[in-house]
Amino acid sequence: MNYCSHCGQPLISRIPEGDNRHRFVCDHCDRIHYQNPRIVAGTIPVWEGRILMCRRAIQPRHGYWTLPAGFMENGETTVEAARRETLEEALAGVRIEGLYTIMHVTHIDQVHMFFRASLLDGEFGAGEESLEVRLFAPDDLPWDEMAFPTVQESLSHFIEDSKKEAFPVRVTDIQRRLGQ
Ligand SMILES: [Zn+2]
């Protein structure tokens, strides 16, 4: 941040009185601009034992496979965000079955949350941010072409848990990028 979103004056970075970390502070209007992690919400949509994935039509990771997911909007719940992203990216209506993964991606200040979900009617298609959307059998998932570590991690837990038909919530930290 360079300028105050309230008064337009330049911001400086310093530790405000009573705080213990650097913040962007406006000395003109005395506002402190806090920055906090952003939440990405998505689904693992299943239809007849297969998993719906989207091939990305946008950067980053253009051409790689992902689960439908995206940044929460103000005024919606995590469930609503996950359902909306699935409709936008995969043109698929889903019933949310339950929270499955909460992953802290601290190197980019994000929290990713994936919900287990079922397609309502088996209908889907490529939304504007997808090149292609298709169902994958568990044995055919494109592990070498996954877009993000949180997608890979959610799916690998999901495949293992599917064998036991028990899906405990997984809370993990993701400290890496794919290919590193
Ligand atoms: Zn200001």
TrEMBL record:
Pfam family, one: NUDIX
Gene3D superfamilies documented for this protein: 2.20.70.10, Nucleoside Triphosphate Pyrophosphohydrolase
Family matches, as InterPro entries: NUDIX_hydrolase-like_dom_sf, NUDIX_hydrolase_dom, Nudix_N
Domain of life according to the entry: Bacteria
UniProt KW Transferase keyword: no
Keyword Hydrolase: yes
Occurrences of domain Nudix hydrolase (ranges): 36-159
Sorted UniProt keywords: Hydrolase
Name used for this protein in its record: ADP-ribose pyrophosphatase YjhB (NUDIX family)
Taxonomic source organism: Tamilnaduibacter salinus
